[in-house]
Design brief:
The structure is a homodimer of 255-residue chains.
Chain A lengths: L7 H9 L14 E10 L3 H10 L6 E4 L22 E5 L2 E6 L10 E7 L2 H9 L5 H4 L5 E8 L9 E10 L3 H9 L10 E2 L25 E7 L3 H8 L4 E5 L5 E6 L1
Antiparallel strand pairs in A: 1-5, 1-10, 1-11, 2-5, 3-4, 3-10, 6-7, 7-9, 8-9
Amino acid sequence: MTMIFSEPKLLRLAAREGRFAEPTAGHAPGFLQANLMIVPQAYAFDFLLFCQRNPKACPLIEVLEPGSVHPACAHDANIATDIPLYRLYRDGEFAGERKSVVDLWQPDFVSFLIGCSFSFEAAVAEAGIPLRHVQQGRNVAMYRTNIPCAPAGMFHGEMVVSMRPIKSSDVARVVEISGRFAVAHGVPVHVGNASEIGIVDLAKPDYGDPVAIEENEVPVFWACGVTPQWVAQKSRIPLCVTHAPGMMFVTDLKG
Amino acid sequence: MTMIFSEPKLLRLAAREGRFAEPTAGHAPGFLQANLMIVPQAYAFDFLLFCQRNPKACPLIEVLEPGSVHPACAHDANIATDIPLYRLYRDGEFAGERKSVVDLWQPDFVSFLIGCSFSFEAAVAEAGIPLRHVQQGRNVAMYRTNIPCAPAGMFHGEMVVSMRPIKSSDVARVVEISGRFAVAHGVPVHVGNASEIGIVDLAKPDYGDPVAIEENEVPVFWACGVTPQWVAQKSRIPLCVTHAPGMMFVTDLKG
């Protein structure tokens, strides 16, 4: 990795000015990072209920007032510009990526900030457990699974997970450490045996970059805040705006 | 207390048939009890967001589908009949109590079940710490405070708390035990010094029955699921249906 932002605000500014459109893992260590889901207010109750019913995949950090772009969890931030890369979904179809969504903004947009597993990575690294995707400056590997989410109104579908290869001797400690970060998905949902949760080929993630699994390592899976994107597709939600997987909103909150 | 229901279902049936309209503290020990808040769907997003922003006062157990009277957390239950006593609020005014709300039911009613501190009382009693209101078969004492809730949409106001007198030597243990019940309001919000949170006279609770505080005891305060009722009044919500304070919906869930 060429340059690490230590301050959330500097990363947000770089994203705002179009100078940074990369995965945010490894940046601003110790600060909570967040997935973004924006839906028009007509679907906001259903989506808020979806989060309430699926706290592992969708631990809420903040829900902004309808129309607002200014989250309380980040000073002087703008939710429509400060994420490195956004994704657009229309009627269940992926509809492109962009560096800003200012031009698309609607007064009825409700923004949901959802915890991200990147938030516990600094604590895991401090415990002397290396994380390969951070070391290699790549995006974390993410997979669609067969784990059903609890449906809510128009939202239904399966969980997306992130995967980190962990040494067998470190698995228990990683469980303990990540368990202290409830708002960052907490403990893993699955350890080993990827095929049991419907993952056919670990070398082909549905989002992010593949990462090698070395001998003496097992794949460890955490619920992932990309779940709403996949659920929005499966549920054919007319319109939603999200972050691009791995390119998070970095808050000023300490994890 | 004359008779204790050990089975949630039997208590719900007795309430349904109008045979039981008393406080539920001490009944069905070990089972989660729930506060009820019903609002028309037009206010449901705002209220769900209020719960998300105020998890100490409003820890959600379940949100029912719009119009549904059948919660998943209680077998064969009916949310419109199975609570010992209901309260009605219109435009911020208390509008009476009744044993059933079947005749008032609207297809757009959304029911919220919110954790109740009665749920940790069995564990506290098992630890050898007596709770006076349970011993005396009275309702727990509840007070409006000056502790502001985080507002959400049309909902704003202050927290309501329940109070239990606890021996000074037992306070720490009660904190530990109640802390294990996050969905039942968790640890206390205040210990001692009632006037600091705006309570003028402990002998005059705003809801429930007064209870003596003996020598060697301090009043210990927990966030209370009656908060939505007071907030609905302060916010002049056009219509909501709730349980009568202290007369809870008893679920089949183990605490």
